[in-house]
Hints:
By secondary structure, this protein is of the alpha+beta class. The chain is 16% helix and 48% strand.
Amino acid sequence: MKLLYIIIFVQINLYSQVKQLTDFKELFDALKNGGSVSAVIHYSSCRLVIDSVEAESPDAIGGMDITPFEYFSAGLFKNNPAYIASSQTVLIYIKKYGYVYNYVKLKIIEDNTVEVTARYLSVNDYKILMDETFYCSINDGIKGGVYLYLK
Length: 151
C-alpha cells in the first residue's frame, strides 16, 4: 500500500510541473495543441520606451496567461515575420489615478522578440493615463526578459 502512495505522489508531481518554453516555435506548438501558457515579464530585463524616448526600466515583474491569442502568419497583413498577439485588461487601483483599467498586450514575434504594451486607461472615458512599451526577448534559459511556461 505504501508503494502505491509513492507511485501516485510521483505521478501527480510529474504532471503538475510546468515546462519553460524557450522560443517562438515551442510557444506556437503549445498554443496550437491547446496548451495553457503563462508569460512572466521581468521588466528590468527589457528596454522601455515612453513617447519615443528610452527610459530606465522599472524593477518590476508582471504576468498573464496567453488566453485568448491570435497567430498571424508572415505576410498576412504585410507583417513580416509572423507573430502571436494576446492582451488582457483588468481593473486595478493606483493611488495616483484611483481605479483604472490596466491593459497589457503581448506581441510575440517569430524572431523571439517580444513587444509589451502597458497602459492605464480611465474607467470613465478610456483616456490613456500611462503608456509604456517594453522591448524584450523570450528567455532562452540564459537571457531574455519574457519567461513562457506551459502549465
